[in-house]
Design a protein that fits this description.
Layout lengths: L4 H21 L1 H31 L5 H11 L2 H13 L3 H11 L3 H34 L1 H26 L7 E2 H8 L2 H9 L7 H10 L8 E2 L1 H11 L5 H27 L7 E4 L6 E4 L1
Helix pairs in contact: 1-6, 2-3, 2-4, 2-6, 3-4, 5-6, 7-11, 10-11
Length: 287
């Protein structure tokens, strides 16, 4: 059954929310980008207007060409619009006109300008905008919650598909034999590896999933166990997992210390110790 229309609508507005959040986060980047490009283009506009002036005022040049040159670079404002077009729009017509009808040296000059400003600087500004977009997406709580929910839904769907393929008996549970058969398939192993779950020891993975599972029958996994277990085991060790393990070790150390204190407090001089030596180990025993 599909999602209700309001839910689908809310999901569709996630993209709009991301755009608005990115624009808000990129306000200063936009401001300084405009200032930088304006200074570059107005400076080049003044240079081009001054450089074209002798050609426009020379009566020996063709009248139509002089008028076209004046249209593009006759004043600083006209030159600024032309530089904006060269920077942001179709730079070829103006560059070809300067190269073919005014002076061939304008051709290489326009190419250098396009490489430095139209390619390098614009691409750097675009990269900064993308960086700010990623920062906005990472810092926005609602976007993070939505993305995490989508990841979990995709994970549940994949594990449900894996469970359905592995449950050859059709009883709704996975035995170790069924789990081993599906997991040791090279395609499935590669698929799980792509999800950051490298299955080296099938028995160990099965036991780890079963240990934290909710199914009461030993040696079987439910679909819920598989979903939760794979989600917990995939990827690198998380700080929470390491902290939990460290806490358990500390608790065990405290209990061992308490047991050691109790044994030390028991004064049993009449007891004799013998040593059993299975496989070369030394284990003290009371007799």
């Amino acid at each position: 059954m599909g999602l209700p229309f309001p839910v689908r609508t809310l999901h569709a507005f996630d993209v709009l929310h991301l755009i608005v959040a990115s624009l808000k986060a990129s306000t200063f980047v936009l401001f300084w980008s405009i200032i930088l490009l304006f200074l570059i283009m107005i400076s080049l506009a003044m240079v081009m207007s001054f450089a074209i002036e002798p050609f426009v005022t020379d009566a020996g040049n063709d009248q139509a060409v002089r008028m076209m040159a004046f249209t593009y670079f006759g004043t600083v404002s006209k030159a600024f619009v032309s530089m904006f077009e060269i920077t942001m729009g179709n730079w070829v017509p103006i560059s070809r006109f300067l190269f073919d009808r005014v002076d061939p040296w304008y051709g290489p000059a326009m190419i250098v300008y396009r490489c430095i400003v139209g390619f390098a600087i614009i691409q750097v500004i675009t990269g900064v905008f993308m960086h700010e977009t990623f920062k906005a997406a990472a810092a926005d709580d609602s976007i993070m919650i939505t993305q995490r929910k989508k990841e979990m839904e995709a994970h549940v769907a994949k594990m449900t598909l894996l469970f359905a393929e592995a449950d050859t008996s059709g009883d709704g549970f996975l035995s170790y034999a069924e789990f081993q058969e599906i997991v040791e398939d090279p395609r499935v192993k590669t698929w799980l590896g792509a999800m950051q779950l490298d299955v080296v020891d099938t028995r160990q993975v099965f036991d780890l999933i079963e240990t934290d599972g909710s199914h009461d029958v030993a040696g079987e996994l439910s679909a819920e166990d598989l979903v939760r277990g794979v989600s917990r085991l995939k990827g690198n060790a998380r700080s929470l997992d390491l902290a939990t393990a460290l806490q358990k070790l500390r608790t065990m150390e405290e209990k061992i210390q308490q047991l050691s204190d109790i044994l030390v407090s028991l004064d049993l001089p009449s007891k004799r110790y013998t040593t059993a030596k299975p496989l070369g180990s030394m284990i003290p025993q009371y007799v």
